[in-house]
Amino acid sequence: MKALKKLFVAGLALSLPLATLAQATEAAKPAEAAPAAAPAPAAKPAEETIKVTPYGFVLLNAYWDGNTLVNKDYPGQAARAGTNEGGAFLMSARQSRIGMRLATSGENWTGAALTGVLEFDFKAGHLSTASTAWYNGVMRLRLAAMTATWKTPYGNWAVLAGQEYGLVNPLFAESLAWVADPLFWQAGNLWRRAPQIRLSYNGQFDAVGLSLAAAMLSPADAGTPVDYGYGNASRTPNFEARAAVSVKAAPDISGTVGAGYHMQTRRYRYGTPTEKDVDGWMFGADADLNLTQFLQVKGEYFTGEGADDTYNTIGSPAVQVAAPNQKVKSDGFWAQGIVKPIPQVWLTIGYGQAKANKGDLTDAIAGVTPDPTNSTRYENSQLAGGVLVNAGKFWRFGVEAMQVTTKYLAAPAGSDPEQKATQIAVSSQLKF
Asked: CA quadruple 356, 362, 367, 370: dihedral positive or negative?
């Protein structure tokens, strides 16, 4: 047994140096290289797509007219004395509107986000003058514009190209009865749509927002043909600019105040010895104030000279043509309060008025044949109110009433140059 133990101890003693030598040899071997990582697949460029979102509304209006309105579906002007035909009743779906908003995804080399809008209604007129054609309203283009927007740390810059609203006095009063031809049109509410190129800036600084915009617009006036009016003949675009400041003082208290300016040139009597270029201008101020969750107040003011028919106010187009040296001054305003006692029911009340300088009109029409004195307005006002019901996210209906007062320079013998007319409207709107 002792001999066996001695043999085991001798073998163990011999194996330890050999094991140490083997470990040292293994450690001396170079480490095997790790297999090379597979190359990452190349990133695919983002695919450019466009998202189309339809929107619009179906709107039915029923109108009861008292006395005679020049347009039976809009109380923009009480007919002058001698043309009173009495009241009228009619229904219309021509203010219904359809449009689509466009938005692109994917990058372009400019780095701009691209959006667009395309919008139509059915107020372009009728295919014939028969009363049966009243229900066949012709579709018209309202908006068709694209916008490229660049976002920066200090605000967003954008370029718009297409047909959009003008920059001067861009607000509209709340109504279901008077939409395509907006409430207070020809009574203080300036508005126009025109092809244009516009540069704008929008910045938000805590609770204060700043908006700046300038645009070059296609001329618009009463000249014919449609593509060669007096503004087109001048070879000069219309120019407009607007600045606005918005403040959000609390969740239910906010407001925006803005100011805009319009300038234009028209060429009258082109190619004749009396050819003349005439400049016109318009200044406008606007405010939209949410005073509490129960009350909103909005309104606008304008004043200008020689630019009335561009903005479809009460100026007579024939006046400027006959007497280009006599630019008619005009001014106007409108204001509306919207009381919201509960979200489902809104109460509206508002007033608007536009005036053309009576002396300017009288002097200008002196050279017009036949004399349009009896048909030329110098003042127009609208008093309107209503109840609007928000029956849900998609359905609204309401009852509204308006009185329009129109003052003419003169009237046929034995009649009053001041005429009044009324309209009551019941409306139902499905929004989508």
From this structure: positive
Instruction: Examine residue 343 and say whether the peptide bond preceding it is cis (omega within 30 degrees of 0).
Output: no
Query: Which stretches of 166-314 are assigned E, i.e. beta strand?
Result: 193-205, 208-217, 238-250, 253-268, 276-292, 295-305
The CB density around residue 131, as the number of other CB atoms within 10 Å, is 9
Instruction: Judge whether 305 and 327 are in contact, CB under 8 Å.
Output: yes
Give the tokens for residue 428.
Answer: 């139902």
Structural domain contains residue 7:
no
Residue 23: inside a domain, yes or no?
no
Chain centroid to Cα 130, Å, comes to 33
Q: Which two tokens stand for residue 116?
A: 């667009």
- Residue at 375: amino acid letter: S
CA-based Rg of the chain, rounded to a whole angstrom? 35
In angstroms, the CA 125 to CA 118 distance is 20
pLDDT tens profile 388-405: 999 999 999 999 999 999
* Contact between residue 169 and residue 354 where contact means Cβ atoms under 8 Å apart: no
- Please check the confidence at residue 265 and state whether its pLDDT lies above 60: yes
Residue with tokens 């003011």: 301
Rounded to an integer, the average pLDDT of 60-80 is 93
pLDDT at 37: 59
Q: pTM of the full predicted structure?
A: 0.85
The Cα 424–Cα 402 span in angstroms is 7
In the predicted structure, residue 55 carries a pLDDT above the cut 90: yes
The residue among 23 and 78 whose pLDDT is bigger is 78
Q: Is 421 a domain residue?
A: yes
Residues comprising the chain, all counted: 432
Q: Count of domains in the chain?
A: 1
* H helix or E strand, kind and range, residue 11: helix 2-28
44 vs 64: CA distance, rounded Å:
63
> Could you tell me the residue range of the domain that residue 372 belongs to?
48-431
Q: Report residue 26 as tokens.
A: 């293994």
358 phi/psi in degrees, rounded to 5: -65, -40
> Does the residue 317 lie in any domain?
yes
CATH number reported for the structural domain that contains residue 306 in this entry: 2.40.160.10
